[in-house]
Amino acid sequence: MPHPPLHLAVALDGAGWHPAAWRVxxxxxxxxxxxxxxxxxxxxxxxxxxxxVTIEDSLDLQSTRPxxxxxxTDQVRGRLxxxxxxxxxxxxxxxxxxxxxxxxxxxxxxxxxxGIATLDHVSSGRAGWRPRVSARRSEAAHFGRRELPExxxxxxxxxxxxxxxxxxxxxxxxAVEVVRRLWDSWQDxxxxxxxxTGRFVDRDRLHYxxxxxxxxxxxxxxxxxxxxxxxxxxxxLAHSSVPYAFAAGSADVVFVTPSDAAQAEAIVTEVxxxxxxVGRTGAPLRILADLTVLLDEDDSTARRLRDxxxxxxxxxxxxxxASFTGTPGRLAEQLGQWRRVGLDGFRLRPAVLPHDLTAITxxxxxxxxxxxxxxxxxxxxxxxxxxxxxxxxxxxxxVASA
Amino acid sequence: MPKQIILAAHFPGVNNQTVWSDPESGSQIxxxxxxxxxxxxxxxxxxxFFLAEGLRLREQHGQIYDLDVVGRPDxxxxxxxLAAVTSRLGLAGTMNATFREPYELARQLAxxxxxxxxxxxxxxxxxxxxxxxxxxxxxxxxDHGLRYERAAxFVRVARRLWDSWPAxxxxxxxxxxxxxxxxxxxxxxxxxxxxDIAGHFTVPRSPQxxxxxxxxxxxxxxxxxxxxxxxxxxxxxxxLEAGQAFYADVKSRLVRYGRSPDDLKIIPGxxxxxxxxxxxxxxxxxxxxxxxxxxxxxIRLLEQVWNRDLSGYDPDGPLPAEDPxxxxxxxxxxxxxxxADPVDTARKxxxxxxxxxxxxxxxxxxxxxxxxxxxxxxxxxxxxxHFVQSDAADxxxxxxxxxxxxxxxxxxxxxxxxxxxxVFRTEYTxxxxxxxxxxxxxxxxxxxxxxxxxxGAAAGAGRPAVPA
Lengths: 402, 468
Ligand SMILES: Cc1cc2nc3c(=O)[nH]c(=O)nc-3n(C[C@H](O)[C@H](O)[C@H](O)COP(=O)(O)O)c2cc1C
Known about the structure:
The structure holds two protein chains of two kinds.
Chain A (H helix, E strand, L loop, with lengths): L6 E6 L8 H4 L10 H13 L4 E4 L26 H8 L7 E7 L5 H14 L5 E5 L4 H4 L18 H26 L6 E4 L4 E3 L9 E2 L4 E2 L14 E5 L3 H10 L2 E4 L4 H18 L7 E10 L3 H15 L8 E5 L1 H12 L5 E6 L4 H16 L12 H4 L8 H7 L1
Parallel strand pairs in A: 1-2, 1-13, 2-3, 3-4, 4-9, 9-10, 10-11, 11-12, 11-13
Antiparallel strand pairs in A: 5-6, 7-8
Chain B lengths: L5 E5 L20 H13 L4 E4 L7 E2 L2 E2 L10 H8 L7 E7 L5 H14 L4 E6 L4 H4 L10 H19 L7 E4 L4 E3 L6 E5 L4 E5 L11 E4 L4 H10 L2 E4 L4 H13 L12 E6 L1 E3 L3 H15 L2 H12 L25 E2 L8 H15 L3 H8 L5 E3 L1 H13 L5 E4 L9 H13 L12 H5 L14 H7 L10
Parallel strand pairs in B: 1-2, 1-17, 2-5, 5-6, 6-11, 11-12, 12-13, 13-17, 14-16
Antiparallel strand pairs in B: 3-4, 3-15, 7-8, 9-10
Bound molecules: flavin mononucleotide.
């Protein structure tokens, strides 16, 4: 095998990533809010030996408008909390990683840290976390604690907005720092159960996070013992230089959105440069390219489905990630080509669930395997193990023993 | 038909009631421990599983308290995971309203209700505790009265959010292409003293409509809040008389809110020790008390009354002759001070120790944390039943002293006796927690007539001592 096997994940959201997916999906749309629906999807992903699933989330209603609701009744609206969804699925699976999304703008870092740590405990080391910033005014209004300007695509280059985005990502970096400190705030061997001295824990192995920043301060230690992975996997979606720097400084995995192989190469170069700039130490970022996929037996059937979706949607579906329409075999070929520019793998966004997920697990995965690009069994272990990330030493243990 | 008993299983807490030194004591954090207790409770046809919460590790003398079990999972996350391994058991957890925002918590609870098909419950607690606040953006603020104002408004907002998607809002009609019946479902606006928020809730109406709301707090304000807003109250009144007085007081407050006595269940937290005979149970109870109060723990518990450093004292020696420090400075942080009049408590304890010739540890064993129900299964079943039939409670939140097996014996030996008496279900007859508890459909988020804050203030500001 010329390269290590590629990393393959799927991004789960609603009825799939195409806005008209629910119209053609072979599932009762009402079940989108049931545990069974999600458990079925993740079980299928695990059957395909995928590295992990991500679960989208946002603290407001889906909308086609950049900020605020759009009044449409013809698309999926409504969503469950992603961390709880991941926790609900954890006991029903045993190998696949679970990466829910939370907001760094509104959610308390302490709650995120304990929630993801708990997800790691209940999944025996398969938890990840995708921090995302909330730039929408409509989301902020649900909390009533800060005013944000309306998010308008035509104003993104204005200095005030550039400043705001910079601040949101700086705050996100602080949130990740706090969350990570709290994960380390218990050394692995903090619980001693020493009957002779009556002590349950050795408090010298518990540490204050003592974080003070521009947006918040957090004392610590966590209320949750260190998660099995030490540090659950942090994954960020990034489209431009500010989030690349955020990912380089804060994340373990980055999802990028190239439109073709040449752009993928340019992005990989930019991300690696960002790692240099921020002085990243430890394992390099795992770079996964996002791709929306619509798969079928042959190209023309796939195209027909796409045309049908376009008709139902009333237009081409517009997305931050590139779309692939065709056969799993051709997709395998394309992934093989793209990964040569230095990508570590892919996060596929199924256009229609479970249609395209099943095509991934039952056809794409075997096709990749035939090309020597994918494993034929789970190696066992944690999500970090699966991604080839070492279990990090505890930052405080190092200090304590120094 | 006799009153039916409500039973809940409390995961052992982070205090000295939980015995970690016993060879049978398991992990406080491994998911397997939670699965064991939840499945045991479900096997016993319990109404619900219950988790406490503390958002900062406790300290004494400015140091992390190391003698008790420390560390627990995030309540919501572990409850969501437990929904996967149980099918009927209610899943209730404590979530502090002071350090959360209504939009987010209402969303998480509605999610839990969906993911458990209608089994979610929320124990609303509040805190005025700046110590815990240091872990949060919001910080700690709120004085005692104000935190119930926040809690009451919080619950009202949560109910409004839970009502924001009408039943049947999700059509999902693939043919006509209508996913939701109306545009922009979940619209809400709330402009209050504590919260000023507006927008759209993202979670369709959950199976219970509103998750079960539980209240734990004993002050007049706490009782009034429960009467106005809660479906159940988690109390701490261990004796029959105290229980009856509390029961009568709280139930009498309901009428002011247009509610009937059945609308609010009173469920004290209790402990138990079983044995083949009453004598054997008493012997086990003594053994457990010694495990709960190690020599080191005895000194620390005494310090919580004396509010002084007593580390120089011999656990087997006499009680301190000096009086407690009654200044505002407290040696403990992260837990409630339990003694209203420490000087008086100290005097009584000294007298008792002298009269019975007890050293510090023996005295502490004598005066703190005696188990609520001790005896043969027959005796315990009889006493529990008597408590409920004589209106000292509607049921119990059982707090085992061992993780995770502390409820096994109760389920194997006491539950069948309660079933024989016809006071406890033999099979689940409903699927939701509201159903198990015999609660009607949730009341819409309404504005309460007698305002909690005003009524609470009228009822007096003095705090009763919580029986230790
Ligand atoms: C039985 C019982 C259980 C409680 N459990 C918790 C808990 O798990 N977490 C918490 O932060 N507070 C808990 N509390 C504390 C209450 O929320 C409240 O802060 C405290 O009782 C003081 O309020 P009060 O003056 O109204 O009694 C509990 C109180 C009682 C009576």
